[in-house]
Every structure is written in structure tokens, then in C-alpha cells.
Amino acid sequence: MSSQHVGRSRVGRGVRFATGAAGLAARQTAARAMTAGHDGDAGRRAATKQQLKAAEGLVKLFSGMRGAAMKVGQTLSAVDIGMVPEEVRPEFQEILAQLQQDAEPVSFRAVTKVVEQDLGQRLSASFADIDPEPLAAASIGQVHRATLHDGRDVVVKVQYPGIAEAIHADMQNLRLGLKLLAILAPGIDTRAIADEIRERIGDELDYELEAASHREMARIYRDHPFVVVPDVVTSLAGERVLVTEYVDGRRFSELPDDTPRADRDRWGEILVRFYLNGPLRHRLLNGDPHPGNSLFLADGRIGFIDFGFSKHLGDVDVRQIIASTRATYQGDAQALLAVASELHALAPDPALAEPFLASYAAIFGWALVDEPVMADATRTADMMRTYTDLRSSTGFEGLELPAEHFVIFRAVFLLLGLVGQLHSTNRWLDITREWLLGDGPATEFGRAEEKFFAGRYAYPAV
Predict the structure, then answer these.
(1) Tens-binned pLDDT, residue by residue, of the chain (462 aa)
(2) Exposed/middle/buried for 56, CB within 10 Å: 0-12, 13-18, 19+?
(3) Which of 101, 249, 375, 411 is the most buried (most CB within 10 A)?
(4) pTM, to two decimals
(5) Measured between alpha carbons, how far is 363 from 406 in angstroms, rounded to an integer?
């Protein structure tokens, strides 16, 4: 049953979180004990059963939280961080995929109150009709379908009542969730996760800021051949309410298992192009490419929604990203170290060059191989472990990359998780060459996009 508002008590929310964390930690400990105490298949089966129960508990725990905690849960659902044996990973990820679905909604009465307060008028003055049943309920708000008085179909994104207080409470309780994450997935850099969430969560609460980023992307992609970004209804935008035109598309979870390979490959290229174009062509980094933000249209296009976790980049930022990626592609460890030194992230010690290159290759290498590659979400576990091990190794204790790089790393993890869920195969280097080396497009989508953007948005000169 939906509630009137989100629970605000840090103590109450902390007790629920800690209780759930203790239960999950116990299951994980039991799984390890079963593996150690039993030989052969019997021990592995018993351990696996406990780990799958832990996954179900994890879903229940994170889906009951909001904001920061739910963001961590959604990230876990979108990538494979090696928490269970390979033979049961599909079942494990299927359980976690529930975190991509709706959170528990609040009542329509509570939604109405927020909308009317934020827009300064009665609900009937803003909308000819609005469905009281939400289309979706996410980490900080829920979405309702509505019709404007001019006949346009729209979606109304409304913040949960009390969500700001709840998120601040969650930030105090976040260390409990990150301790749990460290138990379930040793090697994850939980400090970087916490720092990133603290930096960005305030922006996500400001729908006026999100509306500005959304309007910018909608303008850029208006009439694009294979990308749809719905327009914002500016007259109905507020700090806690965001209204956009309705896009009729399927979510990731609604894609049939027998989807043809050609469709999966096409969608994979669209996803990669969109999320690379954001920072490199348009200077707007979308740090949250999780499954709930993509809608698959019947005509083959993909719609993109939710720009609350966006960050504008400058030309210098983009040049540094391209320079570091180019050095990784060329295997030039000294050039990569030079970029890191320019950023004051590392001392220019030649002994650090090769291990630093290895970490970048682990993260970006899948998109820099000159052959067809099936995107594999299981590689995110190795990517995370490689980078975490690097930061704890001799000479790298003081590694401090700019915040933009951490957001990019997370976006790359999530992007690989997305195309990995599609099992999409492409020669990804054909896409990255366009901005990495300035080459002409080698794919049909690339040529269509080049024609669309001609004279509008050029890649930066580097």
C-alpha cells in the first residue's frame, strides 16, 4: 500500500537498514562457511543457495530505501561485480534486476499536494487528466501519465514528499550500506562511491536543474534519426515537479528473450553512441545510464529520459579525457602518466606508468579493440577490482583524479552493463575512432549521425 510520505527518521531508517544488513552479512558468512566445510558439489550448492537468498534480501533492503541507498542498489543491478559463482550469475542478476523496477509509490493524494504546491495552482488547472496510478516509482520520485489541456500526452515526475529529509537521513546511514556492499563484494572502492553520491545527490533533488539539462539534450536531439529525447513542458516545471512529453517504448525488462541478434546489436550501438556523444560532443556527461532510463520504441529508435545525474564539462576536461583514452588505445603508458601528472593526480614517476595504463586498459579496453566484441557485463567485476587494487598499491596511495573521471568510470561500468544485458556485439572501436582519432564514420548509424550533426556540433580539436 502506498504511503503519504517517505519515512524521514534517520534512526528508524538506520535500524531497518542495519537489521537488513546484519541478516545479509550472516547469509554471506554462512555461504563461505558452507564452501569451506563441505567438499565437492554439495558444498557449492548449499553456498549458492545462501548467496541467492542474500540477493533476494539485498533487493528487499535497497528497494525499501530511497535516494542514495537505492542508487547503490540500482548500480548493483546494472553491472556484474562478481558476487556469486559464474554458473549462477544469470539467476543472481535476474533477482537484482528487480531493483531496476519500481520502488514503492506514495499515495496520489500526497502527489497531488506536491504538484499543487510546486506549480501554485490546482491540479485541474495544470492537467486535463492525470492517471492516479504511477507509471513508475524511482529513487527520489514517481511518474504519472497525464494529458495537457492542449491534448498533448505527458508524464509528470513528482518528488516524494519528505524525500529531501529522507535522503539526508540516508546519507548518514550510507556507511552501513557500504559496509554491507564491502561484505558482499570485497574489493569495491566504497569510499569513491560515497564521495560521488555526496557530491551529486543534491543536484538530483533540484528538478529545475534537471529540467535545464533535459531541455538542452531535447533541443540537440530533436528530429534525430535514431535517438528520442522528449521535450520538457517548461510552463509546468518546478523545483519538485518535471513534466515532459510522453514516449511510448518498452523498458529493458520488457524486451523478449528471443529478441533478434540484429536488434540487440543495433540497440547496443545506439546506447554507446548516445552516452559517448553526451560528454565528448555536447559537453554534458550523463552519469546514470542504468536500464530504467532507456525506452525502446517500436520503430527501432531509443528514447532517453532522466537527466538528473548530469555534469557539464569544459573543453579542457574533454581534451584530457580524449588524451588519456588515446594513450590507452595506443598503449603509451608515459603519455597516460603525463595526462595524470597534468591533472596533479599522480607524481611523474616513470615506475607508475605501466600499472596505471593497465588500470585504464581494464576499464576502457573493451571499446578499443579492433575486432567484433560481445559486450560482457561480467567484466565489470574485473574492472572494479583492477582499479581498486591500483589505488591500494605502492605509489598510488595519493591518487586523486578529478571528480569528472570518477563519474566517467561509473558511467562506463554502467554502459557496459547495459550493452552487456543486451548481449550486443559490435566493433566498438569503429564508434570510438570518430572522436578518438578523428576518423570518418564506419557504420550506417555513424553516417546518419554525421549528416544530422553536420554544421551543428563538431567534436573538439585535440
Answers:
(1) 455 666 544 445 554 555 555 555 555 555 555 555 555 566 566 666 666 676 666 566 565 555 555 555 555 555 555 555 555 556 665 655 565 555 678 899 999 999 999 999 999 999 999 999 999 877 688 999 999 999 999 999 999 888 877 776 666 656 655 665 555 555 455 666 666 666 666 667 789 989 999 999 999 999 999 999 999 999 998 999 999 999 999 998 899 989 999 999 999 999 999 999 999 889 998 877 878 889 999 999 999 998 887 888 888 888 989 999 999 999 999 999 999 898 888 888 999 999 999 988 988 999 999 999 999 877 777 777 777 778 778 888 777 777 667 678 778 888 998 899 899 999 999 999 998 988 999 999 999 999 999 977 666 655
(2) middle
(3) 375
(4) 0.79
(5) 12
| Residue 288 falls in the annotated catalytic set | yes
Structural domain count, the chain: 2
Burial class (CB in 10 A: 0-12, 13-18, 19+), 228: buried
Is 183 inside a domain boundary? Answer: yes
| Residues 205, 140: Cα–Cα separation, whole Å | 8
351 with 275, same domain?
Answer: yes
Which structural domain range is residue 373 located in?
249-462
